[in-house]
Specification:
By secondary structure, this protein is mostly helical. The protein has 16 helices and no strands. The chain has two domains: about 90 residues, no CATH class; about 170 residues, Orthogonal Bundle (Farnesyl Diphosphate Synthase).
Length: about 280
């Protein structure tokens, strides 16, 4: 069993450094559980990258659904995750919601409305944060806070990945927001950073900031134990801020330096009340 958790640690350390760093601020007795959760998230988040076709991706996601039902077949992440689910009595339906949300990633259908985007974000991010918070705080309900945190995290992440998604024909900026500003899918497909497209992206950033403000407002009443589950989202604000600099090109990928990311997470851990400010 320890080998399975060690595999999860190596996977998260290599591919999700923000969440790996956040686990270092969690009590030692919960770190393996968090790492198994984050390793599972990595496995399902990269299904599109490892599957050549949507059908192959569907098969992979179904495999994970079967694994969560107890048919892990020796996969180290699945073995570790099942042990975590049993130990912490985590609700299986939350994991199924994560899997269902990831099915959207397999196709090139555009996100149609802001409500659709928020439902997606609740599945892929807010649910993950709520599970991590449950591990750390013994199942205390933090649903309203983790929803706002998860939505802000997803919006910032999708905007940062906008050039990558655009290059492969995916569109997560809701069509209703594009239409409100006179932008079109053709602007995105043609990599045209028009004023209309920039206005649509600015509106989506404003939605992300609104969720950050709500998370900040609710943070004071949250149990201190859940803070490590929230730490990766401390990077959402700086990510959005980078997009508001003069000369920002939405079609050019950017990356916040690793040391800056580590410093931001460390500061959030030291002064949680400033995490989303």
């Amino acid at each position: 069993m320890q080998d399975a958790f060690a595999h999860c640690e190596g996977l998260v350390r290599a591919a999700d450094k923000d969440r790996f760093l956040s686990t270092l601020f969690a009590p030692a007795e919960h770190r393996n559980a968090l790492l198994s959760l984050y390793a599972f998230n990595l496995e399902i988040a990269r299904v599109r990258e490892v599957a050549r076709e949507a059908l192959a991706g569907e098969i992979r996601l179904q495999w994970w659904s079967d694994a969560l039902a107890g048919r892990a077949e020796g996969h180290p992440v699945a073995v570790a995750l099942l042990a975590t689910i049993t130990r912490y009595q985590l609700p299986p339906e939350r994991f199924q919601t994560l899997l269902d949300a990831r099915r959207f990633d397999l196709y090139d259908e555009p996100m149609r409305t802001l409500a659709d985007l928020e439902a997606y974000a609740e599945g892929v991010s807010a649910g993950l944060i709520a599970l991590a918070a449950g591990i750390l705080a013994g199942g205390i309900d933090t649903g309203v806070l983790t929803r706002h945190v998860g939505l802000a995290h997803t919006i910032a992440g999708l905007l940062a990945a906008f050039p990558i998604h655009a290059a492969r024909g995916q569109l997560f900026v809701p069509l209703e927001i594009l239409a409100r500003h006179g932008a079109t899918r053709e602007h995105v497909a043609g990599r045209q950073a028009t004023p209309q497209l920039r206005a649509a992206l600015a509106e989506l950033r404003a939605h992300g900031r609104r969720h950050l403000r709500e998370a900040q407002r609710l943070l004071a009443a949250a149990p201190a134990a859940i803070m490590p589950a929230l730490l990766p989202v401390a990077l959402a604000g700086p990510t959005l801020a980078r997009m508001e600099r003069r000369g920002y090109d939405p079609f050019t990928p950017f990356e916040i330096a690793g040391w800056r990311r580590q410093l931001r997470v460390w500061r959030a851990a030291k002064w949680p009340h400033r995490m989303f400010a």
